[in-house]
Write a structure and sequence with these properties.
By secondary structure, this protein is an alpha/beta fold. The protein has one domain: Rossmann fold. Helix content is 42%, strand content 16%. It has helices spanning 15-25, 39-51, 66-80, 103-131, 154-173, 208-219; strands spanning 6-9, 30-35, 55-60, 85-88, 134-139, 179-186, 230-233. The radius of gyration is 17 Å and the shape is globular. The chain starts with 5 loop residues before the first strand and ends in a 6-residue tail after the last strand.
Length: 239
């Protein structure tokens, strides 16, 4: 980034979200750390961001609630008077056989993986358009573009595919505004959740840092000509 920007990373109290937030802190002037329940983890992420020279604040919200998501974005904008970068990282994966799913299982997956990202994106866009700058990066998963069978993660896969459609639709709707909207889709990560009972060669595993590097690239001013795309950070996994 050539100009110091203000970023909001959702679900940044640990794991991949923390890695992304800290990576952005190396070049952003401020990184807002969102959490749902783990305030202590969020404070640690903020501490690491400040150590790299960025201002950082910690904000709580349940992103399954439209009101709380909108309030989160409004609070983030007040930290530095603007919000330049939004990373929709929240997206829990839960394993359950497709033929044992309840309506509540579907509701939970859609609200946490799709609706929350939409609520945040919709709240952030007016300010970004008005300032004629914005970078929104949504987190997918390595098989998001495969219309295949997902017997144990069906609601999650459906929600992430919906998020990709949202990414491309919103990107097309922001032509000429200098607001870009993209997706980064991780494959299997060594620090993440691995398939039970499946042997995965170490060479096939990526890292949180690999994914964070892709997010940081898309958040940069120089990525202005890249929008509506999905960057797959998965090596040759499932090719």
């Amino acid at each position: 980034m050539t100009i110091k920007r203000c970023a909001l990373v959702t679900g940044a109290s640990g794991g991949l979200g923390r890695e992304i937030a800290v990576s952005l802190a190396a070049s952003a002037s401020a990184v807002i750390v969102h959490y749902f329940r783990n305030r202590k983890g969020a404070e640690e992420t903020a501490r690491r961001a400040r150590k790299l020279g960025a201002e950082s604040a910690v904000l709580q919200a349940d992103l399954a609630s439209e009101e709380e998501a909108r309030n989160l974005v409004a609070a983030a904008e007040k930290v530095r008077g603007r919000l330049d970068i939004l990373v929709n990282n929240v997206g829990p994966i839960r394993f359950k056989s497709w033929d044992g799913l309840s309506a509540a299982d579907w509701e939970d997956a859609l609200r946490t993986n799709l609706f929350g990202a939409y609520f945040c994106l919709a709240a952030a866009l007016p300010g970004m358009r008005a300032r004629r700058f914005g970078r929104i990066i949504n987190l997918g998963f390595g098989r998001v573009e495969q219309l295949a069978a997902f017997p144990t993660i069906l609601p999650y896969a459906a929600a992430k595919t919906g998020l990709l459609l949202l990414t491309r639709t919103a990107a097309a709707g922001c032509r000429g505004t200098n607001v870009t909207i993209n997706m980064v889709s991780p494959g299997l990560l060594g620090e993440g959740i691995l398939p039970a009972g499946v042997k995965v060669a170490p060479a096939a595993l990526g890292t949180f840092a690999d994914v964070a590097a892709a997010v940081r690239f898309l958040a940069a001013d120089a990525s202005r000509r890249i929008t509506g795309t999905n960057i797959l950070v998965a090596g040759t996994w499932k090719m």
